[in-house]
């Protein structure tokens, strides 16, 4: 076990300055540290890299996925190099074939969705059509089915004939009925959503992810795009993981570059350029537009800041 600990130390030391490490949470009796148990067939490199990932602040599910990826990488490359990092889909047991070869793939959307705004109601969607925003999401929160349906129909009508692509958050049945361009779901929604109905209706599907384990799960559904975050702290939604930071975003983007990608979470004018340089084709914002004194001007400004060359 001491040899495995030594391997883990080498991995952590090699990546300490890569912006992949996050502070460890404060453990307590009600929030104990993860217990890394050995499994049948688990080699020393998988166990060492799992331990290293935990020490780098990855949650347990992500650490286990990383451990297996490290093991596959070492077997493929034939050598243990602590400075390496797994960035190939096959290391994460993701199929190497393209979306076009997968009969279950959801309808494609542009690889570069551009600036992606998330808005609380249909009035905002209409304003963003006027601002020529490339991609918008309606995230309307209500317990009233009639109001939900009304807002979605109004949002779909607002983008009709424009270049703005509209995704509906959560409400996939109403989105199908209204003829929306696509829907966006969290992974917690996958168990209840009728994915076949969404696919058969020709709607695009965007899926949220918050780390390596959820990226692997998202890939199994072959969505139209994958959203990755939260990149920075945000109070708009309770997140299942700590903010991922730029280092992890860059690693995720490299791994999932065969998908249209959207970075989301706490992004504003001060950070959007660095986020865009990660290789994602889209950056999602909320307050950077809705809290701006001049939202239309903010859209233009943010698009300029997104340019990477």
List keywords for this structure.
alpha/beta; TIM Barrel; 2 domains; eight-stranded parallel barrel
Question: How would you describe this structure to a colleague?
Answer:
The chain is of the alpha/beta class and 309 residues long. Helix content is 39%, strand content 12%. The protein has 2 domains: 2-92, no CATH class; 99-306, TIM Barrel (Alpha-Beta Barrel). It is built from 12 helices and 8 strands. β2 (135-138), α5 (145-159) and β3 (165-169) form a beta-alpha-beta unit. α1 packs across α2 (44-55), α2 (44-55) packs across α3 (60-77) and α4 runs parallel beside α5 (145-159).
Task: Briefly summarize what is shown.
With 309 residues, the protein is an alpha/beta fold. The chain contains 12 helices and 8 strands. It has 2 domains: 2-92, no CATH class; 99-306, TIM Barrel, CATH 3.20.20.70.
Write the layout of secondary structure elements.
Layout: H1 2-14, H2 44-55, H3 60-77, E1 114-119, H4 122-130, E2 135-138, H5 145-159, E3 165-169, H6 172-178, E4 182-185, H7 195-200, E5 204-209, H8 212-221, E6 225-228, H9 245-255, E7 261-263, H10 272-276, E8 282-285, H11 287-290, H12 295-306
Parallel strand pairs: 1-2, 1-8, 2-3, 3-4, 4-5, 5-6, 6-7, 7-8
């Amino acid at each position: 076990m001491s040899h495995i600990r030594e391997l883990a130390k080498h991995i952590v030391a090699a990546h300490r300055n890569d912006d992949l490490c996050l502070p460890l949470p404060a453990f307590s009796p009600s929030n104990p540290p993860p217990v890394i148990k050995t499994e049948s067939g688990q080699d020393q490199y998988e166990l060492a890299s799992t331990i290293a990932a935990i020490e780098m602040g990855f949650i347990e599910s992500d650490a286990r996925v990383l451990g297996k990826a490290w093991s596959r990488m070492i077997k493929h490359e034939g050598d243990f190099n602590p400075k390496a990092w797994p960035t190939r889909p096959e290391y994460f047991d993701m199929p190497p074939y393209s979306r076009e070869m997968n009969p279950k793939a959801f309808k494609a959307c542009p690889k570069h969705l551009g600036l992606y705004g998330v808005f609380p109601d249909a009035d905002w969607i209409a304003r963003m059509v006027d601002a020529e925003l490339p991609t918008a999401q309606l995230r309307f929160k209500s317990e009233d089915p009639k109001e939900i349906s009304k807002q979605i129909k109004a949002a779909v009508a607002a983008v009709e004939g424009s270049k703005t692509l509209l995704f509906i958050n959560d409400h996939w049945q109403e989105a199908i009925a209204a003829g929306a361009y696509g829907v966006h779901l969290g992974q917690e929604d996958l168990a209840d959503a009728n994915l076949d109905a969404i696919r058969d209706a020709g709607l695009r599907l965007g899926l949220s992810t918050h780390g390596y384990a959820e990226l692997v799960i998202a890939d199994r559904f072959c969505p139209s795009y994958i959203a990755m975050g939260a990149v920075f702290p945000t109070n708009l939604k309770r997140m299942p993981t700590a903010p991922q930071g730029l280092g992890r975003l860059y690693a995720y983007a490299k791994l999932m570059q065969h998908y249209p990608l959207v970075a989301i979470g706490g992004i504003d004018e001060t950070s959007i350029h660095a986020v865009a340089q990660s290789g994602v084709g889209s950056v999602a914002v909320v307050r950077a537009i809705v809290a701006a004194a001049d939202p239309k001007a903010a859209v233009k400004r943010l698009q300029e800041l997104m340019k990477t060359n």
